[in-house]
């Protein structure tokens, strides 16, 4: 084998470089961001639906809401708790969660989603 | 499984027969089932929103108030460049508003006068027929509605609309010149639009849902009561119908068969 030494050193360096990120990040799992609630949300105590549902289903719920509001003109939502809510992204969700960057965005950044809703829906002015 | 060609053809033939028979049977047994399912949508059924404009009362002051109120409520920015202008309601001269009906002996008052134009919420809207995604469609209460979530910006609807009532967002409305829009977005309760979608008047559907008149009607009433009369054209007792019974009115390009629902009382 010609140049065996060079090839093997090359391979070792190559594999080393490839595995570098694995070793570098070992034991340093990105921490889930701390949830921050606004005073208004704290006072309300409850979200529109139970929190376990909201965590996994809020995107589906918003999708249904916009369909029902814009296309069927059905604008009020009866929660399983019996309370009625206006089906609004800006006017309902972000009324309680007016700390959008510390609430929606923070979690979305962590899970790597970037909803395009804010191209049109107006974000709250955050100055608390 | 052993199956010769003859068995296969028998089974295939039978399945095809059942398939066809099944479908027609279903249709014969359940006439109107699909229509009945659609009726569950609780729109304000059987209504037909429309508007009568009193041309004699509509002076520049009232028209400007209407345009401003509409565009402020719906977050419609001033672009500054007429080629990329976005308008839900706007002013136009007689020869542009009613082409083909102008003549050289037209009454002096009409020659110089501006008319207030908006989406006609046609009975037979050509824009809805061409929309490939059903982003624009005719609601049961007569409103020709826009679903911004579905609009792909193909602009077929703009080509189809004979009234120029639709505008395309060539750019991001947030980037509209600041000096023309010092406090845009003007209504933080309502969304704006993004680059690449078409928009137009929706008769302020979200205000109607709350029992409020469209923004232009409310604004006009403050300056000149009865200049804009909004209501249900299907209801003979409504105020619009009353007004239209008393006064002669014209519509824009009725000869096209779109059935415009905006009436100009002259």
Instruction: Extract low-pLDDT stretches of chain B.
Output: 21-43
- The secondary-structure element order of chain A is HHHEEHH
- Give me the CATH fold name of one domain in chain B: Alpha-Beta Plaits
Strand order of the largest sheet of chain B: 8-1-10-9
The helix/strand class of chain A is mainly alpha
Hey, roughly how much beta strand do the residues of chain B contain? 5-15%
Largest sheet of chain B: 4 strands, mixed
- Extended strand count of chain A: 2
Number of helices of chain B: 10
Shape of chain A: elongated
CATH class of one domain in chain B: Alpha Beta
State the major sheet of chain A.
Answer: 2 strands, antiparallel
* CATH architecture annotation name of one domain in chain B: 2-Layer Sandwich
Order of helices and strands of chain B: HHEHEHHEHEEHEEHHEHEE
Q: Give a count of the beta strands of chain B, DSSP E runs of length 2 or more.
A: 10
Q: Biggest interface, which chains?
A: A-B, 14 and 25 residues
Describe the structure.
The complex is a heterodimer of chains A (128) and B (266). Chain A has 128 residues and is mainly α. In chain A, 51% of the residues lie in helices and 5% in strands. Chain A has a domain at 39-119. Chain A has a two-stranded antiparallel sheet. The mean pLDDT of chain A is 89. Chain B has a domain at 31-48 and 60-203: Alpha-Beta Plaits. With 266 residues, chain B is of the alpha+beta class. Chain B contains 10 helices and 10 strands. Chain B is globular, with a radius of gyration of 24 Å. Classes of the chains: A mainly alpha (128), B alpha+beta (266). Chain A binds chain B through residues 66, 70-75, 90-91, 116, 119-122, and chain B through 41-44, 75, 137, 139, 141, 145, 147-149, 172, 185, 188-195, 205-206, 209.
């Amino acid at each position: 084998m010609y140049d065996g030494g060079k090839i093997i050193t090359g391979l070792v360096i190559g594999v080393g470089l490839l595995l570098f990120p694995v070793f570098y990040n070992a034991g340093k799992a990105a921490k889930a961001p701390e949830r921050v609630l606004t005073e208004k949300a704290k006072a309300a105590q409850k979200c529109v639906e139970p929190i376990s549902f909201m965590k996994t289903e809020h995107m589906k719920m918003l999708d249904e809401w916009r369909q029902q509001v814009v296309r069927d003109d059905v604008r009020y939502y009866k929660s399983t708790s019996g309370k009625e809510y206006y089906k609004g992204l800006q006017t309902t969700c972000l009324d309680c969660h007016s700390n959008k960057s510390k609430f929606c965005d923070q979690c979305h950044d962590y899970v790597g989603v970037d909803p395009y809703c804010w191209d049109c829906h107006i974000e709250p002015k955050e100055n608390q | 499984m052993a199956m010769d060609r003859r068995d296969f053809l028998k089974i295939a033939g039978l399945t095809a027969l059942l398939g066809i028979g099944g479908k027609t049977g279903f249709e014969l047994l359940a006439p109107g089932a699909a229509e009945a399912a659609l009726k569950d949508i609780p729109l304000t059924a059987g209504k037909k929103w429309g508007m009568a404009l009193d041309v004699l009362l509509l002076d520049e002051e009232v028209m400007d108030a209407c345009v401003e109120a509409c565009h402020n409520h719906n977050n419609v920015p001033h672009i500054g460049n007429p080629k990329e202008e976005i308008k839900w309601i706007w002013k136009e001269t007689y020869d542009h508003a009613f082409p083909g009906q102008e003549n050289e002996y037209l009454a002096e008052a009409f020659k110089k006068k501006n008319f207030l134009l908006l989406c006609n919420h046609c009975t037979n809207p050509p824009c809805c027929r061409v929309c490939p995604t059903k982003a624009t469609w005719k609601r049961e209460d007569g409103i020709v509605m826009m679903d911004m979530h579905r609009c792909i910006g193909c602009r077929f609807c703009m080509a189809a609309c004979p009234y120029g009532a639709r505008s395309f967002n060539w750019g991001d409305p947030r980037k509209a010149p600041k000096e023309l829009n010092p406090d845009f977005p003007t209504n933080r309760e309502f969304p704006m639009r993004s680059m690449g979608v078409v928009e137009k008047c929706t008769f302020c559907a979200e205000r109607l849902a709350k029992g409020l008149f469209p923004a232009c009607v409310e604004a006009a009433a403050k300056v000149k009561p009865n200049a804009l009369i909004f209501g249900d054209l299907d209801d003979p007792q409504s105020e619009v119908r009353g007004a239209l019974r008393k006064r002669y009115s014209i519509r824009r390009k009725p000869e096209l068969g779109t059935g415009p629902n905006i009436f100009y009382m002259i």
